[in-house]
Amino acid sequence: MRTLWISALVILILDQASKIWVVQVLDLKQKGAIDVWDPFLNFRMAWNEGVNFGLFSSSQETTRWILIAVAVAIVAAVLWWVHREAMGRFARISAGVLIGGAIGNVIDRIAYGAVADFLNMSCCGITNPYSFNVADIAVFAGAIGLIFFTGSPAKKKAP
Length: 159
Hints:
Blueprint: H1 2-25, H2 28-31, E1 33-37, E2 41-48, H3 61-84, H4 89-112, E3 115-120, H5 134-149
Antiparallel strand pairs: 1-2, 2-3
């Protein structure tokens, strides 16, 4: 479990530090947009009140607290699952990455009332209208890692 908590803490620190730096220090909340390496990497401020890509967004306080409760329930379920199963190192790291990202977005919802999304990437003539953050990447990567690194290995056939 130590591996899980270390990876969760690293992701949480990276997520919150990047948000403080870009949103507060670079003042993206006022500027709205900063071209970093156009079009590959730009900062575009977006306050996400919903889930991915703004789905289920609402300015209602009830929706905010429901999304917080869902994220906390997912974190609890992943912790229970990891504790119950004998998972390998990469599965524990993946779980920690997912948990760190989920907690990072919960902190945003509590502090700001919405998740601070700011990373925007486009390429090859395709303009991406969506912004995301380090926590979003971590939740996605952690979930993919759990898919690949959990489960029982296939049993070898006897010769």
